[in-house]
Amino acid sequence: MEARLTLPIETGIDREIRELMDRLGVDAVRNSDGTELPDWVSEGIAKVYSTYFPARGDKEWEAQSAGERVCQFLMSDPVTASSADPLEINVMRGYLPAQFRPDTDCDRGKYWQVIDRTTGRTLAPEEWSVVAAAPLPLVDPVAKVGEYPAEAASAIVTIAAPEPFHSYTVNFLAQQVWDSTQMYNYLTNDWADDPKRTKDQPYDVAYHRTWEHVRSALARWLQDHPEVDVVRFTTFFYHFTLVFDDRAREKYVDWFGYSASVSIPALEKFAQQYGYELTPEDFVDGGHYNTPFRLPTKRFRDWIDFTSREVAAKAGELVREVHEAGREAMMFLGDNWMGMEPYGPHFPAIGLDAVVGSVGSAATCRMIADIPGVKYTEGRFLPYFFPDVFNPEGDPVKEANDSWLTARRAIVRHPLDRIGYGGYLSLALKHPDFIDRMEAIVREFRSLHTESGGLRPANARPVVAVLNAWGKLRTWQTHMVAHALWYKQIYSYLGVIESLAGLPFDVRFLSFDEVLETGIPADVSVLINAGTRDTAFSGGQAWADPRLQTAVREFVWRGGGLVGVGEPTAASPAQGPFLALADVFGVDREIGWTLSHTRHPVATEGHFVTTDLQERFDFGEDPGEVVTLGATVLAQSEGSVRIAVHAFGSGRAVYLAGLPYSPQNSRLLHRSLLWAAGAEAEWASVLASTNPQVEVAYYPDVNRCFVYNNTDQPAGTHLTGPGVDEELELAPMEGRWLDL
Amino acid sequence: MEARLTLPIETGIDREIRELMDRLGVDAVRNSDGTELPDWVSEGIAKVYSTYFPARGDKEWEAQSAGERVCQFLMSDPVTASSADPLEINVMRGYLPAQFRPDTDCDRGKYWQVIDRTTGRTLAPEEWSVVAAAPLPLVDPVAKVGEYPAEAASAIVTIAAPEPFHSYTVNFLAQQVWDSTQMYNYLTNDWADDPKRTKDQPYDVAYHRTWEHVRSALARWLQDHPEVDVVRFTTFFYHFTLVFDDRAREKYVDWFGYSASVSIPALEKFAQQYGYELTPEDFVDGGHYNTPFRLPTKRFRDWIDFTSREVAAKAGELVREVHEAGREAMMFLGDNWMGMEPYGPHFPAIGLDAVVGSVGSAATCRMIADIPGVKYTEGRFLPYFFPDVFNPEGDPVKEANDSWLTARRAIVRHPLDRIGYGGYLSLALKHPDFIDRMEAIVREFRSLHTESGGLRPANARPVVAVLNAWGKLRTWQTHMVAHALWYKQIYSYLGVIESLAGLPFDVRFLSFDEVLETGIPADVSVLINAGTRDTAFSGGQAWADPRLQTAVREFVWRGGGLVGVGEPTAASPAQGPFLALADVFGVDREIGWTLSHTRHPVATEGHFVTTDLQERFDFGEDPGEVVTLGATVLAQSEGSVRIAVHAFGSGRAVYLAGLPYSPQNSRLLHRSLLWAAGAEAEWASVLASTNPQVEVAYYPDVNRCFVYNNTDQPAGTHLTGPGVDEELELAPMEGRWLDL
Fold first, then answer.
1. Partner of B258 at 20 to 30 A CA spacing, among A192, A315, B407, B668?
2. What pLDDT, in 10s, does the model give residues A89-129?
3. Nearest-Cα residue of chain B relative to residue A579
4. What 8-state DSSP symbol labels residue A39?
5. What is this model's ipTM?
6. B37 burial via Cβ count (<10 Å: 0-12, 13-18, 19+)
7. Which of A165, A258, A548, A591 to probe the B interface (max B CBs under 10 A)?
8. Is the CB of residue A577 less than 8 Å from the CB of residue A571?
């Protein structure tokens, strides 16, 4: 039996740990923050993981590399000129001097910018001046921030002759003087109370000296830690964007943000390689900092590409060091992951052995499992063995069940190679019911590798591609702000990929650029375009390009399928319909310009798409008025179309107002995709379950299926498919293997 | 006593009518559709009104003027080319051949257009051809439409070599072969069942022959009708846009639409006067037909101006004829009112004696009452004496009460000069309770003229201007689609003017152009900008003009007030905040681009603005996420700011998410305007009522006030103000005069 299980262990409870490792079949162990591994781990009972931070925490190097901090372009608060008199802007207002200091020594004509936001004009450097200034005091002081570093500072920009009543901002280069993740832990996890800790200032491998140091430090560390089998990089060099405000509260968070990957040497190298210079505004982006919800600019995508190539080259060298020392290199997909784009073109060449990531949803589970170019993947499961759950009042079994039911849908479709846990095992051992449940989960997880014959379950014929501005680069990563957190504005769309993560389809992610460059791949049967207007996910202005419109129109006309969710293909045009492909969908979004058009909507009952829609359709947040231009309306509310289907040439389109994840909505998407592909006759080709709460995976090669109840209640279903016609009753959460 | 009352009368009930006229003090009578006036009206007991239709109904002229029909530019349904093969478009698909026929005889290179809607390119006339075609059959035939006219037809446009998968439309000139209002009555009021009626084809006074006929016909009619004292024009020449579909259902309705004011002679005259030619697309407007919700183009405003000047000149001549015959000329503000813009620059010169209009809301009541350049105004009150209400099961008293409570708020602020009723008096006489109630209403109406000393009540100091793209031209006419009808998308904004219509403020309507040309008038204290994004009412791209932004910013900074409702100043910018004046409001609209900005909203309790907000704030339709950038939040829900206040320089701004009309919301607006103007200390300067359901009007010159209960329940309030500090209890609906 392959064990496939990683546990955190610690000193002082040797007997219990060894018993548990035997019982669960643990084949890898790790320490946790604040725990030590027992000596006997070097006896080879299990692989030993150890976290490794390449770009922070070496206090000696930190002291020697003051000029080589990670940098970030920040935008000052906008300030409105109330006259033509000189206008002063304190650039650090609203920021935390404990996190950033303005770089006033750099070439400010190049790395600072003053912009009139009323007109969009960048002022000439002669029109403004900078003086250094003392840091602004912390508003409502937060003890946990402690003393400001000695170098804390601000700067005041003076615009000599502003236009009265125009609004101005300053883009400025700032050095990061406190690591973002560490700050987060100080502020939220009481690290401030631990006198052993000191604040880390991250250093940047873009500087040659620092890079040389990082390489040699790893070599030394490998020598000093012969017991470590797997170096778990956490992660590499650049943190996602995480900025704190002057009250030490989170101010800005973008899990996909490249703001903290900036340095003067990198910008100079970029200019050499790409033949043009990036400006601070290319990063600041009018204060939007290239949020993934904005249609990405060519310049920003160039920066991602550049950074990824740089990061891949350097990460590749560290991985090589690890391999040369006879160890494995694993990446934790978190914190400093910028540039380590697992679905980007430079990733496979890094040569990592494994990726481990936190499993929060089926989609994040697939995001890890589907990563190409690594030997194995590992999912870190919830709950952590931390006191917030593992206490006498806590219910760790419930947390484990929720986590498993959520992730299992994805794991069935593409099994992670391993699962693991984190935290303090001593806490978990006090909850024997949790240990029992963990044992059962691990057993079920292993069965997906063993009972399946090591194969993935069969997919329905239609190949599905999620079409947006990002495409493959953001595989399973659409509509996300902060990693796996719920936002009111995104859940109605996240449900699309959450559903897909557990549905029997081959799922791709396709970018508009790919369509323009090489067309829609021949094997794709259905496209999904999901999102609110003005975003990279629906596409916004990308749809103003007639080539994109005609490519998708032709694809559908010739028999393809198109599923739109929310405000698909919304293009804010000067004329014509609001949805660029309104003719394909047979619906349009009403934004106040067509109120004079009298509508006579009629909802149709009974359709393949809505067959399993038992309750009122929950589309989440209202995307706004949608009207039919000829589509058959399957659901409407408040005068607005919520589900509609439409034939277009030989193809078909489905419109859905939103799709928060639920078993019912997942089923609705499942049927929409089949219908759009004209494949409704194949409904049961990979087995079908009448109850949307019960899913089934079909393994034709071993003539078996796995049926799983996604609820914590008993559930019945009727299975049909090749050679199957069977009523089943499943226990709460049960997963059952059936021989066919 | 001035009688100020118009009643519909009829033959056959002479005694009852004479008694009622004495009792109510009727001083004008009119017939209704289908009734005759008794002979004795010529005795001079009361003025006699008679409706007059200048541009239709003369069957003899209709027969002689086949080439002089009213025309309209229509857009065909969009058709997508599925190959490069010739593409045929039947231009009348979706239209009713009983209403329109394509004008295939005109210069089609000029008056027809084929547009590639995927690129916006207008095709050269050589790229397409036209052939006449038989009319498409009526879908689901509607008997009431009857036979098509002999000239019913369609036309097929063939695009020789379309771009595959582009969408094409045809703009074409069509002749209107059935009057729109008459059609409406045939289809909805059973006129089709009346064999005496025949279908009217409207003729156009833009043709010289028709114009000469219309003039002489009026002269003859005046000679033939010596008993008529007041010629009630219904209305003049051009109908608002009202188009029926191929099922004879309403397809397009725009109370402000100028689509049916088109003719070749008018277009030619326009080109001479304005120095450029309008194209069909200037009217078709990408299928939006210049809905008033779109930011109006210069070309469309030129057309309104041109048509209004033409209409005013011709209407002026007819009015002169009426005056020369010793009669009065009255305009019914309805149906064929296009070009008779009562708030436009050409209106006063027409020399009308009076305007009469239907009173549906306080705002429409003010729209009539405030019209400049006429001697008197009259409001036609509800209910009509029609069988739908005046039947044994009907409750005409309730209808009368609802109508009076709605209109009274406006009438108090600016009294109409007269009120009137319509329909069949014989029906009303069967409801003595209704007659009693009418008598009381008329008495209360007259008291507003007599008890007030003939003066309007005092206003609070702040002068309020509603700022949008239309300004004065659409005084009291914002956010309307079809006259006085409820639409889900507008009620949250209509409440603003409905509230204003009854509040003690001097209210103006100001356009962006006026602000750009002559600045914000010096006596204006507070601006209101209300509407959804992308509309003429919030302003859309108009706010991209830095001059407009700075004018309003400076106005507020120097002490002015700004009240924004919904998505005020939303400008869809490429950079910076979404609301152009986000810095003034201290809030911004979140459209998916700032999700990474972490918000820490805190709602503040207790503020002058929300003092009377007893229940949860009902803002109507959700305008979308709004976040604070520094404003004080007074109400929030679902993570979104609903009410916020913000100081900006010496001025103040208030943000409201929406304002459906209710006494509570009217009060909220009242307080918002005072606070924004920095005038909260003057709250009681024109008397204040603690209960928002009870309003008060103050007449300082006669030292009186009028207190009125806007509900059908007893209501108490506490009045305060100059020399007043009094508890009051009012009966349901009561209006009470108090000497101070």
1. B407
2. 999 999 999 999 999 999 999 999 999 999 999 999 999 99
3. B118
4. G
5. 0.94
6. buried
7. A165
8. no
